[in-house]
Amino acid sequence: MSGTKYIGMDVHISSLVVAVMDERGKVVMESILETKAPAILAFIRSVPGSLHVTLEEGAYSTWLYDLLLPHVAKVVVCDPRKNALLKVGNKNDKVDARKLAELLRGGMLSPVYHARRTSLRTLQELARSYRALTKDTTRVMSRLKAVYRGWGIACGGQQVYAPRYREAWLKRLREAGVRRRAEQLYEQFDFLRALHRRVRRELLVESRKHPASEWLRLPSLGPLRVAQLIALMQTPHRFRSKRQLWAYSGLALETHSSAEYCFVAGRVQRSKKVLSLRGLNVNHNHDLKNIFKSAATAASVRSGPWRDFYASLLAKGMKPEMARLTLARKIAAITLALWKKGERFDATQLKPQAA
Questions:
Q1: Which of 44, 164, 351, 355 has its CA 20 to 30 A from that of 85?
Q2: Residue 4: strand pairing partners
Q3: Are strands 253-256 and 267-270 parallel, antiparallel or unpaired?
C-alpha cells in the first residue's frame, strides 16, 4: 500500500467525502468525515505512502490548506470553474471526490495560489475588511439617495451626506415614516464611515511593516493601493512573467484561432489568418483589476511620466479606452519587475514602448 496516493476531497459544511486513489488509478479507500480538524488529521495519518491532496477553492480552502500542508507531500487547491469533468455524468459527493482524485493523478487541475505566509495574514484580513466596508458604505449612500429620489427630491452631489445640512434635507421629507427611515440610514452611514476610516488607518500602518510598501510607490499608486496590492498578490514570485500577472488581473486579451498551419510544397507554414480577439479574459481577480485600472485612469489626467506615455499612445491613433488599458498593463508590468528586484521606481528609466 506504499507509494504515492492521490486524495480527492469534496468539502461541505458538516461533512467531507474523501476518495483515495493509488498510482494505477484504483480507488483503494473512501470515507465520510466530519469537517473538523481531529477527524481529518486522523484519517490522513491512517493512509500510508506519499500523499497528494486536492480540494476545490471555497470557504474552507484556506483553513484546510494550512491544516493539511504539514502532514502531506502536496496540497492542490483547484479552481472549480475549470473542472469540466465534474459536470459530466452522475454527480454526488463520492463521485466528485473520485473525479478530483483522478484529475489530480493526471495533473489536469488548475491550481489556485495558496501559501502559508503568516506575516501577511493580518494585512490580508485588514484589506478584506476595508474592501467590504467600502462596498457597505457605498450601498448605504445609494439607499439614502434612493429615499429622496423616491419622493421626487433631487439630491445630486455629496451635500446630502454632510452632517451640517442633514436637518434641512430631512425637513423636505413630509412623511414621518420616510423621514425615520432616512434618519436610520444616516446612523448606518456615520457608523460605517467611522469604522471605514479606522480600518484604513490600521491597513496603512500594517502595510508599512513590509519592504514592498516602499518599492511599489509608483506615480498614481499611493499608500492605499500599494497596501491592497501587497495583500492581494502576496509575493511577486508566484507570477513567472508579466503576462501571467495580466491574466490574473483581467488585463490579458483572449484570442481564438483554428487551422493555424498548412502545407505548402511539402513544408509546414503558419496561416496568415487574423486572430479572433474575444476581449479581456473573464476569469480574474476583480479587486486587482480595479486597482490597476483606477491607477491608469488617474494617471491619464495627472501630469507626470504616465501622462506622457498615455499622450504618446493617443498621438499614435490609439483609442482612449485602449490607451488606458495599455497604461494599466504598463503599470502592472513595472510593479511586478520592481517588486521582484526590490528596487524603487525611476522615471528616467521608463521605456517609451507600449506594454
A1: 44
A2: 50
A3: unpaired
| The residue to which cell 495580466 is assigned | 246
- Closest listed residue to residue 200, CA positions, set 287, 293, 123: 123
Cβ(203)–Cβ(141) below 8 Å = no
Q: What pLDDT shows up at residue 353?
A: 55
Give the span between the Cα atoms of 196 and 189, in whole angstroms. Answer: 10
Instruction: Identify whether 111 is part of a domain.
Output: no
The set of residues, in sequence order, having a beta carbon less than 8 Å from that of 219 and lying 6+ positions away, is 299, 302, 304, 305, 306, 345, 347
- At 63, is the pLDDT very low, low, confident or very high (cuts 50, 70, 90)? very high
Domain end: 64, 80, 106, which one? 106
From residue 127, how far is each of 75, 234, 269, 273 by CA, in Å? 26, 12, 51, 45
Q: pTM for the complete prediction?
A: 0.85
Shared domain for 251 and 297, answered yes or no, is yes
| Residue 150 and residue 42 share a domain | no
Work out how many domains the chain is built from and give that number: 3
Residues 6+ apart with CB under 8 A from 227: 123, 127, 203, 204, 206, 207, 213
Least Cα distance to 235 among 331, 116, 65, 343 occurs for: 116
Q: Are residues 187 and 248 in the same domain?
A: no
- Strand pairing category for 261-264 and 267-270: antiparallel
Residue 133 has pLDDT above 70, yes or no: yes
Written as one letter, the residue type at 245 is L
70 and 98 part of one domain: yes
Count the Cβ atoms, other than its own, within 10 Å of residue 261: 8
Q: Which domain holds residue 249?
A: 233-349
Judged against a pLDDT cut of 80, whether residue 275 lies above it is answered with no
Is 239 inside a domain boundary?
Answer: yes
Report the chain's mean pLDDT, rounded to a whole number.
91
Of the residues 42, 77, 106, the one at which a domain ends: 106
| Domain-embedded: residue 268 | yes
pLDDT at residue 271 in the model = 78
Distance CA 112, CA 267 (A): 41
> Residue 182: is its pLDDT beyond 90?
yes
